[in-house]
Amino acid sequence: MKVVELMNKNVVTCHSSERLNVIINKFELFNIAGMPVVDKGRLIGIICQSDILKGLKAGSIEELAVKDVMVGDVITAPPTESAVNIAKIMIEKKVNRIPIIDNDKLVGIVTRGDIIKAVAECG
Question: The whole model's pTM is what?
């Protein structure tokens, strides 16, 4: 199975200048735990709940922005990647979500939940 078959194409994203209190609201509103950070349609990072928790050691939620806590070295994959390889990468790199990039453009995201759902539907 290719990742394009199970990825979420409606990706919730944020900008590096957004405040963390806004991001927490997005997490709650969209029932997500992380999202890609984009600038002019280009992926520049990723942020998740644990990044925010780590960042709170350095400042308050009102004063910190995404750029202060995001991870800039993002693991990505093309839509043609196999779901099995994505699962292996998630385990090896200890990540819960992988943005899917096609021609330098964010086209989707795959989470551990997406992998589990796909396995459950196949079985």
Answer: 0.91
